[in-house]
UniProtKB/TrEMBL annotation:
It comes from the Eukaryota. This is Alpha/beta-hydrolase. InterPro entries: AB_hydrolase_fold.
Length: 263
Protein backbone atom coordinates (compact mmCIF):
# COMPACT_ATOMS: atom_id res chain seq x y z
CA UNK A 1 0.00 0.00 0.00
CA UNK A 2 1.19 3.52 -0.85
CA UNK A 3 1.56 5.65 2.31
CA UNK A 4 3.47 8.76 3.32
CA UNK A 5 6.53 6.54 3.87
CA UNK A 6 6.52 5.60 0.17
CA UNK A 7 8.03 9.04 -0.42
CA UNK A 8 11.30 7.98 1.20
CA UNK A 9 12.80 6.61 -2.03
CA UNK A 10 12.31 9.87 -3.93
CA UNK A 11 13.34 11.85 -0.85
CA UNK A 12 16.65 10.01 -0.77
CA UNK A 13 17.33 11.24 -4.30
CA UNK A 14 16.19 14.80 -3.60
CA UNK A 15 18.32 15.43 -0.53
CA UNK A 16 21.44 14.65 -2.56
CA UNK A 17 20.67 17.44 -5.04
CA UNK A 18 22.50 20.72 -5.33
CA UNK A 19 19.04 22.26 -5.73
CA UNK A 20 18.14 21.38 -2.15
CA UNK A 21 19.22 24.80 -0.85
CA UNK A 22 16.16 26.27 -2.59
CA UNK A 23 13.90 24.13 -0.42
CA UNK A 24 13.18 24.53 3.29
CA UNK A 25 11.83 21.01 3.67
CA UNK A 26 9.64 18.20 2.37
CA UNK A 27 6.35 17.02 3.86
CA UNK A 28 4.56 13.80 2.87
CA UNK A 29 0.89 13.73 3.86
CA UNK A 30 -1.37 10.80 4.69
CA UNK A 31 -5.12 11.21 4.42
CA UNK A 32 -7.92 8.89 5.43
CA UNK A 33 -8.98 6.41 2.75
CA UNK A 34 -12.30 5.07 1.54
CA UNK A 35 -13.34 1.49 2.31
CA UNK A 36 -11.87 -1.26 0.14
CA UNK A 37 -12.93 -4.57 1.73
CA UNK A 38 -12.10 -6.55 -1.43
CA UNK A 39 -8.50 -5.33 -1.69
CA UNK A 40 -6.48 -8.46 -2.55
CA UNK A 41 -3.52 -7.70 -0.29
CA UNK A 42 -4.82 -5.34 2.40
CA UNK A 43 -8.62 -5.37 2.75
CA UNK A 44 -10.12 -2.61 4.85
CA UNK A 45 -12.04 -3.28 8.05
CA UNK A 46 -15.31 -1.53 9.00
CA UNK A 47 -13.69 -0.72 12.36
CA UNK A 48 -10.72 1.10 10.80
CA UNK A 49 -11.53 4.82 10.98
CA UNK A 50 -8.59 5.63 8.72
CA UNK A 51 -10.10 3.64 5.84
CA UNK A 52 -13.81 4.38 5.93
CA UNK A 53 -14.45 7.92 4.71
CA UNK A 54 -15.97 9.47 1.60
CA UNK A 55 -15.46 12.69 -0.34
CA UNK A 56 -14.94 15.44 0.75
CA UNK A 57 -13.19 14.05 3.85
CA UNK A 58 -10.02 13.21 1.89
CA UNK A 59 -9.84 16.84 0.78
CA UNK A 60 -10.60 18.09 4.28
CA UNK A 61 -7.70 16.02 5.61
CA UNK A 62 -5.26 17.66 3.20
CA UNK A 63 -6.58 21.15 3.98
CA UNK A 64 -6.38 20.37 7.68
CA UNK A 65 -2.80 19.14 7.36
CA UNK A 66 -1.70 22.33 5.60
CA UNK A 67 -3.41 24.44 8.25
CA UNK A 68 -1.77 22.40 11.01
CA UNK A 69 1.69 22.77 9.49
CA UNK A 70 1.23 26.50 9.01
CA UNK A 71 -0.06 27.05 12.55
CA UNK A 72 2.45 24.85 14.38
CA UNK A 73 5.66 25.72 12.54
CA UNK A 74 8.73 24.95 14.64
CA UNK A 75 6.66 23.71 17.58
CA UNK A 76 6.84 20.41 19.44
CA UNK A 77 3.73 18.32 18.86
CA UNK A 78 2.60 15.09 20.51
CA UNK A 79 2.39 11.91 18.45
CA UNK A 80 -0.66 9.64 18.66
CA UNK A 81 1.48 6.61 19.38
CA UNK A 82 3.33 8.38 22.17
CA UNK A 83 6.30 10.70 22.25
CA UNK A 84 6.66 14.01 20.48
CA UNK A 85 8.34 15.56 17.47
CA UNK A 86 9.47 19.09 16.71
CA UNK A 87 8.17 20.36 13.39
CA UNK A 88 10.51 22.21 11.03
CA UNK A 89 9.82 25.82 10.11
CA UNK A 90 6.76 25.38 7.91
CA UNK A 91 5.45 28.92 8.42
CA UNK A 92 5.90 29.66 4.71
CA UNK A 93 2.89 27.42 4.01
CA UNK A 94 0.49 30.02 5.42
CA UNK A 95 1.95 32.61 3.05
CA UNK A 96 1.72 30.27 0.06
CA UNK A 97 5.46 29.62 -0.31
CA UNK A 98 5.12 25.93 -1.10
CA UNK A 99 4.32 23.58 -3.97
CA UNK A 100 1.95 20.63 -4.09
CA UNK A 101 2.79 17.36 -5.81
CA UNK A 102 0.35 14.47 -6.00
CA UNK A 103 0.15 11.12 -7.77
CA UNK A 104 -3.02 9.37 -8.97
CA UNK A 105 -5.75 10.24 -6.41
CA UNK A 106 -3.16 12.49 -4.78
CA UNK A 107 -3.05 14.51 -8.00
CA UNK A 108 -6.82 14.87 -7.80
CA UNK A 109 -6.47 16.18 -4.26
CA UNK A 110 -3.63 18.55 -5.18
CA UNK A 111 -5.86 20.13 -7.83
CA UNK A 112 -8.90 20.28 -5.55
CA UNK A 113 -6.86 21.76 -2.70
CA UNK A 114 -5.47 24.48 -4.94
CA UNK A 115 -8.95 25.28 -6.23
CA UNK A 116 -10.38 25.62 -2.72
CA UNK A 117 -7.48 27.75 -1.46
CA UNK A 118 -7.44 30.02 -4.51
CA UNK A 119 -11.13 30.70 -3.94
CA UNK A 120 -10.25 32.18 -0.55
CA UNK A 121 -11.98 29.56 1.60
CA UNK A 122 -9.05 29.26 4.01
CA UNK A 123 -6.46 31.36 5.81
CA UNK A 124 -3.83 29.33 3.94
CA UNK A 125 -2.71 30.79 0.63
CA UNK A 126 -2.67 28.46 -2.41
CA UNK A 127 0.66 26.98 -3.58
CA UNK A 128 2.93 28.78 -6.03
CA UNK A 129 3.06 25.71 -8.30
CA UNK A 130 1.73 22.19 -8.46
CA UNK A 131 2.41 18.87 -10.14
CA UNK A 132 -0.09 16.14 -10.92
CA UNK A 133 1.36 12.75 -11.82
CA UNK A 134 -0.80 10.13 -13.54
CA UNK A 135 -3.77 11.90 -12.04
CA UNK A 136 -7.51 11.28 -12.07
CA UNK A 137 -9.18 14.53 -13.12
CA UNK A 138 -12.45 13.36 -14.72
CA UNK A 139 -14.06 10.70 -12.55
CA UNK A 140 -17.09 9.87 -14.79
CA UNK A 141 -14.75 9.50 -17.78
CA UNK A 142 -12.48 7.16 -15.83
CA UNK A 143 -15.39 4.82 -15.05
CA UNK A 144 -16.74 5.05 -18.61
CA UNK A 145 -13.36 4.27 -20.16
CA UNK A 146 -12.45 1.36 -17.89
CA UNK A 147 -15.04 -1.40 -17.83
CA UNK A 148 -13.35 -3.49 -15.14
CA UNK A 149 -15.70 -3.46 -12.10
CA UNK A 150 -12.86 -2.44 -9.78
CA UNK A 151 -13.00 1.13 -11.16
CA UNK A 152 -16.67 1.63 -10.36
CA UNK A 153 -16.14 -0.10 -7.02
CA UNK A 154 -13.41 2.24 -5.80
CA UNK A 155 -15.10 5.35 -7.21
CA UNK A 156 -18.37 4.43 -5.50
CA UNK A 157 -16.53 3.79 -2.25
CA UNK A 158 -14.86 7.20 -2.43
CA UNK A 159 -17.69 9.34 -3.83
CA UNK A 160 -20.90 7.39 -3.26
CA UNK A 161 -23.50 5.98 -5.65
CA UNK A 162 -24.78 9.36 -6.85
CA UNK A 163 -22.96 10.06 -10.11
CA UNK A 164 -23.74 13.77 -9.80
CA UNK A 165 -21.26 13.81 -6.92
CA UNK A 166 -18.63 12.40 -9.29
CA UNK A 167 -19.30 15.28 -11.66
CA UNK A 168 -19.13 17.90 -8.92
CA UNK A 169 -15.87 16.52 -7.55
CA UNK A 170 -14.38 16.52 -11.06
CA UNK A 171 -15.48 20.10 -11.68
CA UNK A 172 -13.70 21.22 -8.51
CA UNK A 173 -10.45 19.74 -9.87
CA UNK A 174 -10.38 22.30 -12.67
CA UNK A 175 -11.55 25.48 -10.92
CA UNK A 176 -8.22 27.30 -11.16
CA UNK A 177 -9.21 30.41 -13.10
CA UNK A 178 -8.23 32.75 -10.23
CA UNK A 179 -4.90 31.03 -9.54
CA UNK A 180 -1.66 32.38 -11.06
CA UNK A 181 0.66 29.41 -10.50
CA UNK A 182 2.27 27.01 -12.98
CA UNK A 183 1.23 23.38 -13.47
CA UNK A 184 3.27 20.31 -14.40
CA UNK A 185 1.19 17.34 -15.52
CA UNK A 186 3.09 14.06 -15.80
CA UNK A 187 1.70 10.98 -17.54
CA UNK A 188 3.35 7.65 -18.24
CA UNK A 189 2.91 6.05 -21.65
CA UNK A 190 3.08 2.68 -19.86
CA UNK A 191 0.57 3.44 -17.09
CA UNK A 192 -1.64 0.37 -16.84
CA UNK A 193 -4.27 1.97 -14.58
CA UNK A 194 -4.89 5.59 -15.64
CA UNK A 195 -5.22 6.54 -19.31
CA UNK A 196 -3.48 9.49 -20.94
CA UNK A 197 -6.84 11.08 -21.77
CA UNK A 198 -7.17 12.08 -18.12
CA UNK A 199 -4.10 14.30 -18.44
CA UNK A 200 -4.96 15.59 -21.92
CA UNK A 201 -8.49 16.60 -20.92
CA UNK A 202 -7.11 18.34 -17.81
CA UNK A 203 -4.79 20.39 -20.01
CA UNK A 204 -7.73 21.42 -22.20
CA UNK A 205 -9.69 22.44 -19.12
CA UNK A 206 -6.77 24.59 -17.90
CA UNK A 207 -6.34 26.24 -21.31
CA UNK A 208 -9.99 27.32 -21.22
CA UNK A 209 -9.22 29.00 -17.88
CA UNK A 210 -6.36 31.06 -19.25
CA UNK A 211 -3.40 28.70 -18.96
CA UNK A 212 -0.86 28.47 -21.78
CA UNK A 213 0.73 25.23 -22.97
CA UNK A 214 4.51 25.27 -22.73
CA UNK A 215 7.51 22.94 -22.87
CA UNK A 216 9.77 25.16 -20.81
CA UNK A 217 9.44 27.63 -17.97
CA UNK A 218 11.54 30.78 -18.07
CA UNK A 219 12.52 33.00 -15.16
CA UNK A 220 10.26 36.02 -14.95
CA UNK A 221 7.24 34.27 -16.47
CA UNK A 222 3.80 35.52 -15.54
CA UNK A 223 2.47 32.17 -14.35
CA UNK A 224 -0.60 30.23 -15.56
CA UNK A 225 1.46 27.89 -17.74
CA UNK A 226 0.91 24.15 -18.05
CA UNK A 227 3.59 21.71 -19.09
CA UNK A 228 2.93 18.08 -20.02
CA UNK A 229 5.75 15.62 -19.37
CA UNK A 230 5.61 12.05 -20.72
CA UNK A 231 7.44 9.34 -18.78
CA UNK A 232 7.70 5.56 -19.10
CA UNK A 233 6.91 3.49 -16.02
CA UNK A 234 4.10 1.52 -14.46
CA UNK A 235 1.61 3.33 -12.23
CA UNK A 236 3.07 2.54 -8.80
CA UNK A 237 6.67 2.65 -10.02
CA UNK A 238 6.47 6.42 -9.58
CA UNK A 239 6.73 5.65 -5.85
CA UNK A 240 8.64 2.39 -5.92
CA UNK A 241 11.54 3.71 -8.01
CA UNK A 242 11.20 7.36 -6.98
CA UNK A 243 13.14 8.68 -9.98
CA UNK A 244 10.26 10.32 -11.85
CA UNK A 245 8.69 11.68 -8.66
CA UNK A 246 12.00 13.30 -7.73
CA UNK A 247 12.29 14.77 -11.23
CA UNK A 248 8.82 16.31 -11.02
CA UNK A 249 9.56 17.86 -7.64
CA UNK A 250 12.84 19.28 -8.96
CA UNK A 251 10.95 20.94 -11.82
CA UNK A 252 8.17 22.55 -9.77
CA UNK A 253 10.55 23.78 -7.06
CA UNK A 254 12.89 25.43 -9.54
CA UNK A 255 13.09 29.19 -9.01
CA UNK A 256 11.78 29.84 -12.52
CA UNK A 257 8.60 27.92 -11.74
CA UNK A 258 7.84 29.60 -8.44
CA UNK A 259 8.86 33.12 -9.48
CA UNK A 260 5.31 34.38 -10.19
CA UNK A 261 4.13 33.67 -6.63
CA UNK A 262 0.90 35.53 -7.35
CA UNK A 263 -2.58 34.31 -6.48
Amino acid sequence: MITRKSFNTALGLLIKDDQAHNIAGYVSLDYRLSPYPSHPASPSSPDDKSRNVQHPEHLNDVLGALSFLGSNAGEEVDLKGGGAIRLPDTSSITAGRYVLCGHSCGATLAMQTTAVLSAGHSAIEPPVALSGMEGIYDIPALVATHTHPAYREFVTAAFGQNEETWVTASQLVGELEKWRGNVLLVQSSSDELVDVQQTDSMIEKLVVQGFTRTSTISTGNEGKQVWKSVIDCLHDEVWEKGTELAKAIRVVTDKAWISPAKH
